[in-house]
């Protein structure tokens, strides 16, 4: 073998991704019939209450008008609607890996495209609001956010009202671009929202993805990210608050497909009330080609009352040891007795001390989100959530042992 | 007037082998403008005394009484004790992530006084209390005790002491882990507090070092869950010279 040949081989090696056999990244398909109706025993469905999905995972028909959409585009950002056959669809590399995503893909009558032109630094956030109009007819959605080269911007997808929705969100962050995407689920109590979000992060590009879920009956978000060049960075932040009977599920998959890439995932949730259920799955795959990468995943759950369930599963699959760092952490717990004792020993009553601790738990994360348009709203929503169940938070005994 | 009266206090903790008695009958009275030092070897129950008076849920009171100006402290919740005028400076102050020092102090002051402090004076008061403890005003924007050095945590405790202005302060090994400069600053904090009207101090320490800066009126040697001997400042000098041997041997 000549030197040139071996160099060519190594270049080839580093460009072509080897196929990895792993349940972390199933082969996708655009054909609905390739995805059988799940039974609930599948790894990717085992936590989800299929009976509450209003048939989204089966064959229920979609129709337009499930959500009224309002767009507030920041200066320099274009927001358009394109036909389903537009080439922009699929430009992130999204291929549906489950039936709901495939059905939504096949059913949409159009797609919303948010485009941030090359070199444009955008002031303020572009907000796409989805107001649910009712749960009678399920809706399918598709959005593509394209942050062109060296642009810098923030895009917020906000959901409220009542609706049954399945959607695919594609995020393309081109080389050197910096993009913040916030997916804000403030649904009414009867909403069902299954969202598949896929990001493609370019060379030296930075994506901050934030998922905030408060309301809804069942909210399940699957976020995946891959890298189209070295040096890309993904920060994924999540904040959720599950009330009685609510199911909130986040499944993340970061596929380190390029060298020197970074991923940092922090999801924090609180649960209160009977039957509140949260699920967090944090999957990371470090491919052979992905040398020198850095990844860290963290999930923390604060269980405020009895009767809640928090499932938290971090998975890390490593094909190369030539990395900067890889780790994960998961912790689910009740109030820290020592924190409460410290605050109360300063005269702060029990309920107030608990509220401070929960605020602090989330505020750490809200600070990192760093979208001024949202900060006040998020803090306020946390306060509203806490006040819903304040009686459960005030329980205390004579000697100060917490009962929650 | 402020009198902390501890009578025949007995305290136990749950262990794997059942309840274990830690305090075996402690009697102490801290009167107006008195500073009492409690000294003792590791494991003698000094910290248990501090935490059980403050109401830590880990400790079970099995006998005796503790009153502050005649009011039964043991019948109160942790926060009620603080509002009655008790303050515990902890050996290991707890981190509360995401809660700023400013928010924490204001919430505590509001709870203790029963009304929110006047904003204009309050900011000045906080800054001055921090400054006296050689802490930068930017300190108030940091999360409570998070990432603080050992010395910063103790000085933060003393800033709280100044701002919350209790009747009686229990200082649990506030001097431990401090370098000499920090020790002087913390001692000034204690002296400034007890210079106020009708203040009592219960100073728990392992070392005699801090007693050079904070002169106690009474010194108690604490061994095996009870007061083994009480005396004046001269008792501390004896301990400085001879250590705890005489007392620990007597207890065995």
How is this structure best summarized?
The complex is a heterodimer of chains A (about 400) and B (about 250). By secondary structure, chain A is of the alpha/beta class.
Description:
The complex is a heterodimer of chains A (404) and B (252). Chain A has 404 residues and is of the alpha/beta class. Chain A has one domain (24-333). Helix content of chain A is 18%, strand content 43%. Chain A contains 6 helices and 16 strands. Chain A has a 16-stranded mixed β-sheet that branches. The longest helix of chain A is centred in the C-terminal third of the chain and has 20 residues, at 350-369. The termini of chain A are far apart. By secondary structure, chain B is an alpha/beta fold. Chain B is 35% helix and 30% strand. Chain B has 8 helices and 12 strands. In chain B, the strands form 3 sheets. A 6-stranded mixed β-sheet of chain B has the order 6-9-10-3-11-12, sandwiched between helices. A 4-stranded antiparallel β-sheet of chain B has the order 2-1-4-5. Classes of the chains: A alpha/beta (404), B alpha/beta (252).
The oligomerization state is heterodimer
User: Proportion of β residues of chain A?
Assistant: 35-45%
Q: Count the strands of chain A?
A: 16
Q: Major beta sheet of chain A, specifics?
A: 16 strands, mixed
User: Any low-confidence stretches of chain B, pLDDT <50, length ≥5?
Assistant: none
Compile the SSE list and pairings.
The complex is a heterodimer of chains A (404) and B (252).
Chain A: H1 3-15, E1 67-72, E2 78-82, H2 99-107, E3 111-116, E4 121-147, E5 152-173, E6 178-187, E7 192-201, E8 206-213, E9 218-227, E10 233-242, E11 247-256, E12 262-271, E13 277-286, E14 294-303, E15 309-318, E16 325-333, H3 337-344, H4 350-369, H5 372-388, H6 390-393
Parallel strand pairs in A: 3-4, 4-5, 5-6, 5-7, 6-8, 7-9, 8-10, 9-11, 10-12, 11-13, 12-14, 13-15, 14-16
Antiparallel strand pairs in A: 1-4, 2-3
Chain B: E1 4-15, E2 18-30, E3 35-39, H1 46-54, E4 59-68, E5 71-72, H2 78-83, E6 86-89, E7 96-100, H3 101-113, H4 119-132, E8 143-144, H5 150-164, E9 168-172, H6 180-194, E10 200-205, E11 218-223, E12 226-231, H7 233-242, H8 245-251
Parallel strand pairs in B: 3-10, 3-11, 6-9, 9-10
Antiparallel strand pairs in B: 1-2, 1-4, 4-5, 7-8, 11-12
